[in-house]
Specification:
The structure holds two protein chains of two kinds. Chain A is mostly helical. Chain A has helices at 9-12, 17-31, 34-48, 54-80, 87-107, 119-141, 156-169, 191-206, 214-228, and strands at residues 111-113, 170-172. Chain A contains nine helices and two strands, in the order H-H-H-H-H-E-H-H-E-H-H. Chain A is globular and about 55 Å long. The radius of gyration of chain B is 18 Å and the shape is globular. The chains are: A mainly alpha, B alpha/beta.
Chain lengths: 233, 316
């Protein structure tokens, strides 16, 4: 793209807000009652994350991987790509994050869920509960019909926010009794959810959606909590 | 593609139109007009400079408005817009492979109309690689469901050095009727000028509206000189211009040229420029497409009134 600096974000928005939210409305109708399963998966992750153990981290990562794969295929690839050619790349990024989470679940035994008190715990669980219970209702608060609700595990924005909260709870552990062990590179799980938060916020902002501020606020909160708790990033 | 021209122009219309052009011919910067505007009771048309074929001065864009994906309800609404567009005398529909599902939605709409639409199919090639051009064009044609395009344009000049020879070859082989280039929002005007001077193109598509008038300085005079048709995109700045204008009352003198709203005000300003062949407002509303086509009826402003229109909008 030549003269790329002359393009505004709004120049890149190739669909209307009506089309965007209708996509969720049609998707929700088509995947119902998958919402119940998705919320069940989210609740299971929250419950599991209260346990401070390696298996809890692995179960949480596996369930999250399932959500990222589903969103990549069912929403971004199948439904978003027809109206946004960049969505194919988004879908690839979501599939990569799903694969990384699956790798974490399968091989990275040096990761624990660390639910000790502190900003990471508060923000982590807070964002997870927000994404599960509050975010789907926000649309109604801003005048959109409930049929267009964006639900964790099915829609990208609440899934990304939930994931960022969950990543705050993961803690790489260096097993000192095993000289060969290395802390798991848990930082690799951060870039894609963070990047999506910016993409999602930019999309909403260019559509002049009143809830466009949500994702940037979540990112700031997560980064603050991560720094205070010496977590990644 | 075979075109069923919906032209109800009468000799009286042409004579009436010729009188409208007299002031335009006196413009010091513009020079000679591209051709007669036929207006009056029928939809106003202008000749494509390279062939003389008449085109209605208001077409239909598809950026954003027709990119509705697989939403059946929205696709039906788009088909309704197309039906209203053709019923009101419109012909040119413009799209691009960059516009997401718009091409497929247009093809779906044409199939739903179930009759020979008087379509002037304008699309674009938008890919870096020259080798990828023919494949993309064929895919676009398949989505539209037309036997061939009337006009293909190099979108935003992307890879124009490689694509134009392909398009000229298609035109020579009878697979295409017109060749053009596009830009928007004032980008790459020097390069646009260079292509206009060096290549035998039929159309150039640029942004032009009562506020975005940079093309009046060089591009439009050059189009007149080189006998290149001009398609005006973003006539309403994607609706932002109308939203701003609608905060103000329409000036009473707009009634002199039959404007019943700001959309018609803007469109009449655009298409009355002697170099402009047509404008391509995009809409997803049947009421709006009828309003837009309404600008192709009645009087068009002369040079003095155009100056007054531009000054009025700039002052708001």
């Amino acid at each position: 793209m030549t003269e790329w600096w002359t393009y505004r974000l709004s120049d890149l928005l190739m669909f209307s807000a009506r089309t965007y939210y209708r996509m969720f409305e049609i998707y929700n109708a088509e995947v119902w009652p998958g919402h119940l399963a998705a919320l069940g998966v989210g609740a299971a992750i929250v419950v599991v994350s209260t346990r401070r153990s390696a298996w809890a981290a692995r179960v949480a990562c596996a369930l999250l991987a399932l959500c990222w794969f589903w969103v990549a295929w069912a929403l971004l690839w199948q439904r978003y790509a027809p109206v946004n050619w960049a969505a194919e790349w988004f879908a690839a990024a979501w599939a990569i994050e799903g694969a990384l989470l699956l790798l974490c679940a399968s091989f990275w035994k040096q990761v624990r869920v660390d639910a000790r008190s502190g900003p990471a715990r508060s923000v982590g669980f807070g964002l997870a509960l927000f994404a599960l219970a509050v975010q789907p209702l926000l649309g109604m608060l801003f005048g959109r019909p409930w049929q267009q609700a964006e639900v964790f595990g099915l829609a990208p924005d609440p899934t990304a926010i939930f994931t960022l909260g969950q990543l705050l709870l993961l803690r790489p552990i260096h097993d000192r009794s095993d000289a060969a062990s290395m802390p798991a590179p848990a930082w690799v799980l951060w870039p894609i959810p963070l990047a999506w938060s910016l993409v999602g916020a930019a999309t909403l902002w260019t559509m002049k959606a009143p809830d466009a501020w949500l994702m940037p606020c979540a990112v700031v909160l997560v980064l603050f909590a991560a720094r205070r708790s010496s977590r990644y990033p | 593609m075979p075109v069923q021209v919906r032209d109800t122009t009468t000799r009286r219309d042409v004579l009436r139109t010729a009188s409208l052009l007299v002031p335009s011919a006196l413009w010091p910067r513009i020079g000679v007009a591209q051709g007669a505007v036929s207006a009056g009771t029928a939809v106003a048309t202008k000749p494509i400079p390279s062939t003389g074929e008449l085109l209605p001065v208001v077409g239909l864009g598809s950026w954003i408005t027709f990119n509705v994906g697989n939403d059946r309800v929205a696709r039906e609404a788009c088909a309704d817009v197309m039906r209203a567009f053709f019923d009101a005398g419109g012909r040119m529909i413009d799209s691009s492979p960059m516009y997401g599902s718009s091409q497929a939605v247009i093809g779906d709409g044409l199939a739903r109309l179930g009759r020979a639409a008087p379509l002037f199919a304008a699309d674009k090639v938008w890919i870096w690689s020259g080798a990828g051009g023919p494949g993309q064009i064929e895919e676009s044609r398949r989505r539209w469901g037309v036997p061939r395009f009337d006009l293909l344009q190099v979108h935003n000049l992307l890879g124009w050095e490689e694509h134009l020879p392909t398009l000229f070859a298609m035109k020579a082989a009878g697979q295409l009727r017109y060749v053009g280039i596009t830009t928007s929002e004032g980008r790459r005007h020097r390069e646009i000028e260079a292509v206009m001077r060096s290549q035998p193109i039929d159309f150039v598509q640029v942004t032009y509206n009562p506020l975005d008038r940079e093309v009046e300085d060089r591009i439009l005079p050059l189009a007149l000189e080189r006998r290149i048709g001009v398609i005006a995109n973003r006539p309403f700045r994607e609706g932002a211009l109308l939203r701003e204008l609608q905060r103000h009352p329409l000036p009473p003198w707009a009634a002199e040229i039959g404007c019943d709203g700001w959309a018609q005000f803007a469109l009449k300003f655009i298409v009355s420029h002697p170099a402009v062949t047509c404008a391509i407002p995009a809409t997803s509303s049947v009421a709006h497409v009828r309003q837009n086509l309404g600008a192709a009826h009645g009087r068009l402003p002369d040079a003095a009134l155009r100056r007054r229109m531009a000054a009025h909008v700039a002052a708001l």
